[in-house]
Each structure stands twice: as C-alpha cells, then as structure tokens.
Amino acid sequence: MNFNSRFLNKKLCNYHFRNCIRWFVVQNRLYAKATSFPDFFQNPIFRKEDQAKLIENSELAKLAAVPVRPPASYETCSVYHDPLVNKVINHVMEMGKKQLARSLVEKAFENIKRIQIERYHLAQTQEEKNKIELNPKSILYNAVENCKPLLQLSPIKRGGITYQVPGPITEKRSLFLSIKWLLEATNDKERTVHFPEQFAWELLDAANNTGKVVKRKQDLHRQCEANRAYAHYRWQ
Amino acid sequence: MFSRNWRVLSRAYSQAVTFRTSEISPQHQNDKQIGLFYTLKQDTCKELFSNGGLPKSFMKQTKTFTETTLMIRQPALDLINCIKSTDFNKPVIRYVLYGEKGCGKSLTMAHMIHYAYEDGYLIVHVPWVSEWLRRVPRHKEMSNSQTREGLVDLPLDAAAWLIHFKSQNQTLLKSSDLKISKEYVWSKREKTESGAPLSELVEHGIARIKYACDVIDALISEIKILSNNKQCKTFVAIDGFNSFFYPLTRLNTPTKKKVKPDEVTLTKSFLELTKNDWNNGIILLSADQLAVPDENQDSYFPRYLLRKQGFEYLDPFVPIEVGRYSDKEFLSCASYYRDRLWLRGPPEIETELKFTSACNPFKFMEQCAPL
Amino acid sequence: MSLIIKHCRSNGITSSFNLRIWRLNSTSMDVAAKKGEEEEEFRVLDILKKRDKVQKKVARRNDVQPDRADRMAVDQNWGNVWPGPKTFHPSSVPLPIRQGYVPKGQAPPGKKANAELMKIPNFLHLTPPVVKAQCEAIKQYCTEWPKLLNSEEAIEKHYPVEVITSDYCHASPSIRNPLARIVTLRVKLATLNLDKHARDKFLRLVGDRYDEKTDLVTITADRCPARKQNLDYVDYLLTACYHESLNVEEWEKDKTEDDMEYYDWDKNASKKSLVQWYLRMKNENVDLKDEQFIEYDISQIPNAESYKNAVSSLMNDGENESTVNNYAKEVRALLGLPEKLVV
C-alpha cells in the first residue's frame, strides 16, 4: 500500500485495488454519539466469508465470550452486500433518507447496466464484446479508483503567507474525496436530468478514465506538481 | 478450490436449464412448455402492441433484451384450453383475470391477444382503462357529447384507441368483407353508407376526431352484429376493467363537476360490449388493484375490485388467477435473465432473490435491475 | 486466700483493710495491692479534676406489664379477640406485621405506632373459622336450594338473564368500590325466542352489544349513582329492546336489498343474470318481470344449484381463495368449460 510514495500516472491492476478498497471501506462503526453499548462491545462479524476465516484460524472461540453489538440493518450476510456500495449510498443520503438514497443508487446501476448491455449488443466482434464491463458494481469500483487523488494540498502559514503545500494523502481521505467529487459532479446537472441518469454517466466516464471528475483529480495533481517547491514547509 | 469447482458446475447446470421454446404459435403450446419463453416476431409485436398493450417496464426490458419474449404460463394455457372447448353459438363467456400486483395479468392478456391474432379473431383491445378515466395529463380533451345528453366525450383518447384498433386488425380490415349494416349520419354533409367496409368507419373516426366517440359506439354495435352473423369472431380484451365501476373518475368537467365513469361515452360503449347478449366471441377482462386509488386496494380478489355493481354486471364470469412464479418458472426466468445478461453473480443469488421477491415476477425483475 | 489474711490481721486495723480484702480475690492482685499501699503515701495532685461519672438513675416503673400480644395463648379463639371491624391495634394482633415505605436496605417499620397499618381497612374479623361459624349460625334462616336446579344447564334454562356486579372493597380510606354500582346484564339471544324480523331488529337496536360467537347480548349500565338504579335501568333496556323489536313500523317496508344482513341469492341480480343467460342460451326471447325472475325455477338449469351455493358463500362468507376457487369451479361447470388446468 505504497500509494503515497509512487507517483502520479500509474496503473494498477484490477484485483489489487479492489482488495485495497475492501480493506479500507471500514466495516467497523465509529459512533459520533454515545451508544447504549459500552466500548468493550465488539463490532459484529456478519459476513459469511469473515466468519469462515475466523473458523479457519480458530479464533472464533476467543470471540465466544466477548459481548457483541447487534448488527445494523444494512450489515447483512446477503450475497449482494458490498461495503463500497454501502459507503456511496451513505454519501448520497440526505436527512437520513436511506431508502431513497439506496433506490437512487440502484437506479443508477440499472441505467449503467442498460447502457452497457446496449453497447454489448451493438458491438460487432467478440473481442469488443468481451471488453465491455457489464457489472455495474465493478464499474463503480473502477470509477472510484480512477477518481482517487494521490496527493493533497494543505494550507500552511509561513511568514504571514498561506502556502498550498502538497503532501501525501491518507487512503481514507482519498476515498472520501473520490466519492465526494463524483457526487458533486453528478449534482452539477440540468434540472430536467434525473440523478440516477447523471450518476450513471459520471460513473461510466470515470470508469473510462475520462470525464469531469478525473479531470479534477488531474488538476489537483498538476497543482501539487507546481507547488512542490513548497513541499519543505510541511516539516519546517 | 472445491467451492470454485462447485460454482462452475452449478453455473453449467443453470445454463443447461432450458428456458426457451421454439413453439412460437400460441395455438400449439401445451403444458409441457410451461415456464418456457417464446419469442414474438418483431413485426407481429409492432402490429399488436405498438400503441400500448405491454406494460411500460416490460417495454423497457424488451428494448434492453433486444427481443420480445413471453413466458408460457398456466393461466394463459388454461384460457386457451377453455377457448378451444367453447361452444361459440352460446352467449359469450367472460373471463376475469385477477391476481396480485405485478404477477403478470397484463402479460397474460398480451399472450392471449397474440393467440387471438394467430387464430384470426377481430381484436378489440383496451390497453388500460385508467388511461382514459384516471390519468389526467395537462391537456385532456373533454367535450360534452353531441348525441347523448349529459355524457362526456373523450375524443382524443377515442381516436387514439381507434388507431390502436386499426393497427391491431389491419390485415382483417384490409382483406375481409366486414360491412356495415346500417347508415350512420354524422352531420349534414358527412355520413357513412350502409354496406361500407368497417375500415371506413374507423378511418372516419380517426379523421374526424369530433365524432370518434360516436364512431366507437357505432363500431361496437356493428362488431356485435357481425359476430352474431358469424362474419367474424371477436376477441375482447380490456385491461383494468374495474376502473369502470369505481364510483368516481379523476375527470372534471369545465364547470368543475366530478365525472362518474358511467357519464363517459366510452364507458357506455365498452360496457355494452361486455354484456353477454351476443355470441361468437370471447371476452377477457382484468381486475387490477392498480386501476383504482390506493385506499381501495385492500384485496386483489375480483368481487372486491369490481364492487357489487361490477360483479353483478359480469356474473356469471370465470375468474382466472394469475399467481406468482412456481419454482420451475422462477428457475427458468432466472436463467433467461442470465442469458440476457440481466442477472449475474453466484448461483446463491437466486435463492436470495427468490426469497426477497417472494416469487413475484415484477419484484423479481425490479430486484435484478441493480445487480 | 483472702479469708486467711483476714484472720491474721488485728482488730484494730481491720476496718481499713476490710475494704481492700473484699475487693481482691487473687494472690497476684494481692501483690499489686501492696504496691498500691506503698504508693498511696503521696497524694497526686489532680489538676484537671476528672469527675467520676455518676450514673443517673433511670426511673423505672415496675407496674408496666409485657405486651398483651406476647401473652396470648397459641390456641385461643381469635373470634373473641377480634370480634368486629376495628382499626388495627398492635397489642391485640400477635403477628409480626411490618408496613411502610423505607429507603432501600432497611426493614419496614414494625406494627407498633404504625399509622400505615391503622389507615388501611383490615379484615381480621373475617377469618375463615369465624365466617364459618357465622354461616352456621344463620343457616337456620335459609331455604333449601331447589333440587331441579342441579346443573349449570338447568340454571341457564330457567334463569337465562345473568346479572353481573362486583362487590370488592377498596383498599383506601373509603372502603366503597366505585365499580360496585356498575351492573352488567347478559342474556343469550336464543332464549328470547325472537322471529326473523324481530331478531334482525333487535340486533340492529343493540348494535355491538351482541357477540356473534357466544350468542350473548351484554348490556352494561353505569350512569346512575346506585346499584339498584342501574339494575332497574338494565332491566328496562332489555324489556324496551325486546318489545320494540317485536313492533313492525311502517317505514320498515322500505328496506331495500342493500340493507339486507345477508345475501339472498334468489332476490339478487345474480339470479336474474343467470336466468337471462339461460334463456339466451336457449334462444328464447322472453321478457320477465322481477317477480318472475325471483320465482323462476332454477332446477331445470344444469349445475345451477351448486352455482347458487357458490355465489352465496362468496357473498356471505367473504372473499378468499377458497370461495373464489369454488366459484370458478362452479361457473366452469355451469358454462360447460373444462376444469382448471393443473400443472
């Protein structure tokens, strides 16, 4: 996970980053407010894979005596549970209207699927067909990965002047920025266009490494490159 | 390793499940093909359903799937079975499709229309009654009827329906010698002679929208006479028929008076058609929860939806339930979706979808969408 | 030991020694006493005078006797101790009673000087043996239970009206239970022997006071302040409803089909449409009047009887899967269609 040390334009193979994201979309819940459960209560392990891993490592016995919080409604062992999708839904959500947010994201997925299947049927040769990614979830993963910035600018005041100093970014924040930018790009739309359609287009663009959001990321990188003379302010 | 092998095996199995049948003519479909999909030809589909008849979400699917397929299901086969053993000299028999929302009443009706089309029936098909009575777009054309006192005309809807009728029966109208029995005088200069072909009447309705409702009325009485005289056999299909019996429509007259369904000329005409005082025909109706407002959707049974008035009007009718998918149908549908790239993922997903959708066809389709 | 010492000493100093010897009782103490004798030669100046505590005499009355409760015999006749209703008195009750609210961890106060116990009404005069004895005493004034009323059914038959009141006492300063005045009357509707019309009218009059499952009419009155008045009122209500239901008013003739409490197939549109269908099938063009429809004999129509039953059950029992399926089956039989395709 040496994203930070590597430099700007690099490619990652598909499955590698996927594991990274899975690792980083945290399944632990951190609560802003106090809950009714004391701190020593463990987060539940609700995925069957994770449970199987525990059984394999024979760590399950350790957990047997530990008190565990109940899982939240979205933490299911369903086959289509996906932490990143869940994250995106939470980002889309406003005023706690999760059902609405979820339906919007799902509609966006449906739109992606329809567009891609149409392309698939239009494609002439088998090779072209094979190239087309039909799974909306992996398109989302690609899109989010392509939008993740590798550096960030932080304002640092030196001698009365605020410099935009480039620096490394944590994995978590880059994921946050990526989703945030995608949603900002989506919400910057005509009133007549609906969210799911626009979101589908943005995701497809980003998955293709084109579009507004990827440009924004590259702009940030360019800015960082330009400001690298200030880099020493980070520790001076 | 083992689990992967197993997955490959089960995927191979699910692909091996047959879900298509080459039997595209509904006459020859039998109960061995239950749960299988058959493909409608593009031009047939265009002829029958270009002006409505298939639900909107289904139309979207046909576009994505690049084909129109219908599943052969028990209610349709049951209906075909009944129709085959019907004595056409007796008064028409009325069938009422009922079932939960999204179980496929409209698609069963579409299947039956295809059957009637293949069998050479004259098709009188109303795609969705609520379109007339309950849907109020910004410019809903309404006028007081010239010929019948106190009734309301919906000329645009009527003309649209006449176009639908024309496109569904274009072959029959072109070729056959369906003649009008009496003279219809529309105005001082316009009239339709007796002995003119039926298509002339339809054309007149489309051309002179003002008279569309009266044309429909005339058309329906002519169809009844023609059927009685054994010149044609008629298949009547009306979706959302219970709308006719709901106490109120959403229409308002220009004087802000609420319109009742039986104050609309179209209602009168089509209720006249669904009486059993003629023969050589089949009437297929559907009682749908979606055709009435939310507060009256407590039950999906026909007596409740048709209300007392409608029940007494139709009695005796044959209720035909369109139910949820059986196991076999579900499996076949899932493999069809997999074939059409609509569903992917591990095979366990089907078990879960079966549970969450409760085998309801529409819900299943909806839940597959984001996967 | 001390005795011997006492003997040895001369008479002259006995008095001063006597005290000491009286106090001592062991040899070791003797030694210590000797020491003390030598030290006594100098008096110590006691600057801060420590006064010996003089124990105050407690005035104790000798005439207070032990509590009466403690002196009671185990096998006494309790009825004599507590013959009638009376405020609680701790000395009369030989029970370790405790009552009262206290902070957590403490025992509630005992019975003595306990106002809590005195506030509440007690039933110490109504112990089972006392009640039994009193019943025995008044038995001579009672009449015998009728022999024929030997079972619940017999009682129900001869006394169909059941009056329910409650006789609880209240555990508050007032013993009167406010529920005592409420009177409930229950009667089986079948015992009223009403005819069809009267029964219908009676049911409409009593409304939701009738329970279909148990066939019971329950009338409750609580508007009057005394039980007697409520009882009279309940009786009046039942009588009034009964007689009113037997009356036939002029306007009752206007009852239409919608007001019917159950679906009568013969009088409904369903029969009419069936007959019309049948006539059309036979190509008979007969115009029948409504009465003729009602009187039309359906036995000549094949399968019509079971169809009639199916429609009636659909209407009367409500619509559910089984009634609708039954209806479908009968209609198919009537119209000569094949059975439902079973897959």
From TrEMBL, chain A:
Keywords: Ribonucleoprotein, Ribosomal protein. Coiled coil: none annotated. InterPro entries: Ribosomal_uS7, Ribosomal_uS7_CS, Ribosomal_uS7_dom, Ribosomal_uS7_dom_sf. One of its GO terms (biological process) is translation. Residues 76-228 form the Small ribosomal subunit protein uS7 domain. PROSITE patterns: RIBOSOMAL_S7. GO terms for cellular component: ribonucleoprotein complex; ribosome. It comes from the Eukaryota. GO terms for molecular function: RNA binding; structural constituent of ribosome. Belongs to the universal ribosomal protein uS7 family. PANTHER family: RIBOSOMAL PROTEIN S7 (PTHR11205). This is Small ribosomal subunit protein uS7 domain-containing protein.
Automatic annotation (TrEMBL), chain B:
Keywords: Mitochondrion, Ribonucleoprotein, Ribosomal protein, Transit peptide. It is found in: Mitochondrion. One of its GO terms (molecular function) is structural constituent of ribosome. GO terms for biological process: apoptotic process. GO terms for cellular component: mitochondrial small ribosomal subunit. InterPro entries: Ribosomal_mS29, Ribosomal_mS29_met. PANTHER family: MITOCHONDRIAL 28S RIBOSOMAL PROTEIN S29, SMALL RIBOSOMAL SUBUNIT PROTEIN MS29. Belongs to the mitochondrion-specific ribosomal protein mS29 family. This is Small ribosomal subunit protein mS29. It comes from Diatraea saccharalis (sugarcane borer).
UniProtKB/TrEMBL annotation, chain C:
One of its GO terms (biological process) is mitochondrial translation. One of its GO terms (cellular component) is mitochondrial small ribosomal subunit. Coiled coil: none annotated. GO terms for molecular function: structural constituent of ribosome. Residues 176-247 form the Small ribosomal subunit protein mS35 mitochondrial conserved domain. InterPro entries: Ribosomal_mS35_mit (IPR019349), Ribosomal_mS35_mt (IPR039848). It holds the Pfam family MRP-S28. Signal peptide: none annotated. It comes from the Eukaryota. This is Small ribosomal subunit protein mS35 mitochondrial conserved domain-containing protein.
